[in-house]
Write a structure and sequence with these properties.
Layout lengths: L4 H13 L4 H12 L6 H12 L20 H13 L5 H8 L3 H11 L2 E4 L2 E4 L4 H10 L1
Helix pairs in contact: 1-3, 2-3, 5-6
Length: about 140
């Protein structure tokens, strides 16, 4: 049985359309979904929304919720800023590109693989040439 939120919302919408009261919907859903059942207050809230005329079972995006900005253009822009100035901070990059500091942090550390060493951004993984030069220096 599908116990996802959207599936449970569809059940709430159906039972509410049949005229079931919210407390009865909660009891019936608790019997079926057990631990995965939505909270009582959530079921009551969705019942109110359907009574008010809502027909969509999906969440609306929050107005302040960021859209996906981690695309190849943004990643290359962050990489270019770091290559121009190795001492640039994540906050300065965020301001420059008008994206959140968390997104910048994700791009720098997860996508590009950089880390700070002595206040400069350096790649975490050495290239083959860098590994050979390091072995030669030893």
């Amino acid at each position: 049985m599908d116990s996802s939120r959207s599936a449970q919302r569809a059940v709430i919408q159906f039972l509410r359309a049949e005229g079931e009261h919210a407390s009865q919907i909660y009891r019936r859903m608790k019997e079926v979904y057990r631990e995965q059942c939505l909270a009582r207050c959530t079921i009551f809230r969705w019942c109110q929304r359907y009574e008010a005329g809502r027909v969509n079972i999906k969440d609306f995006p929050c107005p302040e919720q960021a859209h996906v900005v981690t695309n190849s253009a943004t990643i290359s822009a962050v990489d270019e800023l770091i290559r121009q100035n190795r001492q640039i901070t994540a906050l300065e990059i965020a301001v420059e590109l008008s994206i959140s500091k968390g997104t910048v942090h994700h791009i720098i550390h997860k996508k590009l693989g950089y880390g700070k060493v002595c206040a400069q951004w350096v790649p975490k993984h050495l290239s083959e040439n860098q590994k050979a030069a390091r072995m030669g220096a030893c």
